[in-house]
Amino acid sequence: MKILLVIIDGLGDRPIAKLGDRTPLDAAKTPNLDYMAKQGVCGLITPFLFSQEKEPTSEGAHIALFGYQNYFLGRGPYEAVGAGMKMNAGDVALRVNFATVDKNFKIIDRRAGRIEKTQPLIKALSKIKIKGVKFLIKRSFGHRAVLLLKCLRLNLKQLSSGISDNDSHKNKVKIKKIIPLNQSREAKFTADVLSEYLARVHHILKDHFLNRKREKQGLLPANYLLVRGAGKFKKTPSFKERYNLSAACVAGGGLYKGVAKILGMDLIKVKGATGMADTNLKAKFRVAKNALRKYNFVFLHIKATDTFAHDNDFIGKKKFIEKIDKNIKSILCLKNALIVITADHSTCCNMKAHCLEPIPILIFGDGKDNVSQFSERTCAKGNFKKIKQTDLMPKILKLAKI
Ligand SMILES: [Zn+2]
Ligand SMILES: [Zn+2]
Q: Which ligand gives the minimal distance to the CA of 345?
């Protein structure tokens, strides 16, 4: 059997008083998902946490649900590869925010007034090399970018991801110093060279014509880079090598494309797949369905449920789930395929954050149980029971008889 894995980001939630003590999924009208629950098997997944985590991250949770928890690279490399950058073993990548600081390096705005047009700034930063390290920066979206550090003289100097962030995640405080997080020479070298780079970048940005123009217009200048999530690239065994599956990914968000690409999946482009609430769900389901003709395994990612929950917009989350339900109808006729619908983690509206609530899962295409509605509450009674996130791949491979 072929496998279609649909990840609805941050789907699970807690009951909300204004929804009649129901979760957005429970409150949503979802006739198609309920039909699939009725004809399929339901259960719950307990989220995986890396030792340093208090709540799940999207990148960590995806890596765990695909069964690659021993190959986690940190956020930077997944973002970089998702943004189309080519990484080699030993390269270090970080996420970047264009930000505004004052003369004393106090953060005025972590997002530089949500600047969109960063290309002229990025161009001005395009050819920086310090102590044998080349710095490449690429825009992802809005004020966000990715920074890639490449060692030009391998064997002489090595880079390390064991360095701290400079982002204090708050405005009106001083930027943090990048420091090594371990005793190694590599971590010290990387922290030093990155600090030197950030100072040089500030020097270039503060006098850049675009920032001068922004200031004249009363806008905040994007005069500093906040960096976080350092990760070092190393080769990860592909889905083909690990599971003997030809795999493809349909996603809008860069991070998810990056995860898929690093796991050796082919990325399938979909017009209008934005990773936001306006994404073209109809096209995504159609493309994923067609991809099953060629591939054994298709990973379809849908993002906006998580985004609504981060804003405590539980009505938005509920309505978006209803929109997914309408569009999911087109895959109900799939033959000889196991359709798995679940999430990477729950995102609790009332916390505006990822949370530890168990994740609902629905498996359609191999057997049925007594659950007739898709929700956290009803999934607790399903025959799939409650499994660990890292056991998901072995379980579904077994069901699909692979
Ligand atoms: Zn997520
Ligand atoms: Zn999130």
A: 1
Say if residue 315 is in the same domain as residue 176.
no
- When divided into structural domains, the chain yields a total of 2
Helical spans, DSSP H, in 90-208? 119-124, 185-206
> Contact at 8 Å (CB) between 181 and 163?
yes
Q: In terms of pTM, does the model score above 0.85? A: yes
Clarify whether residues 31 and 112 are in a common domain.
no
Same domain, 122 and 217: yes
Do 250 and 328 have their domain in common? yes
Each residue's pLDDT, cut to its tens digit, for the chain (402 residues) gives 999 999 999 999 999 999 999 999 999 999 999 999 999 999 999 999 998 899 999 999 999 999 999 999 999 999 999 999 999 999 999 999 999 999 999 999 999 999 999 999 999 999 899 999 999 999 998 899 999 999 887 665 699 999 999 998 889 999 999 999 999 999 999 999 999 999 999 999 999 999 999 999 999 999 999 999 999 999 999 999 999 999 999 999 999 999 999 999 999 999 999 888 999 999 999 999 999 999 999 999 999 999 999 999 999 999 999 999 999 999 999 999 999 999 999 999 999 999 999 999 999 999 999 999 999 999 999 999 999 999 999 999 999 998
- Residues with Cβ within 5 Å of ion ligand 2? 306
Q: Do the beta carbons of residue 2 and residue 295 sit within 8 Å?
A: yes
Ligand 1: centre distance to CA 277 (Å): 15
Distance 102 CA to ligand 1 centre (A): 34
Measured in Å, residue 51 CA sits from the centre of ligand 2 at: 19
Which of 217, 232, 247 is the C-terminal boundary of a domain? 232
Task: Please check whether residues 357 and 373 belong to one and the same domain.
Answer: yes
Nearest ligand by distance to the CA of 349: 2
Buried b (16+ CB within 10 A) or exposed e, 85-106: bebeebbbbbbbbbbbbeeeee
Tell me which residue range forms the domain holding 154: 81-232
Record the tokens describing residue 78, joined without a space: 């997944």
Instruction: Report which bound ligand comes closest to the CA of 310.
Output: 2
CA distances from 115 to 125, 211, 354 (A): 17, 11, 26
Residues 241 and 386 reside in one and the same domain: yes
Structure tokens belonging to residue 360: 């609902």
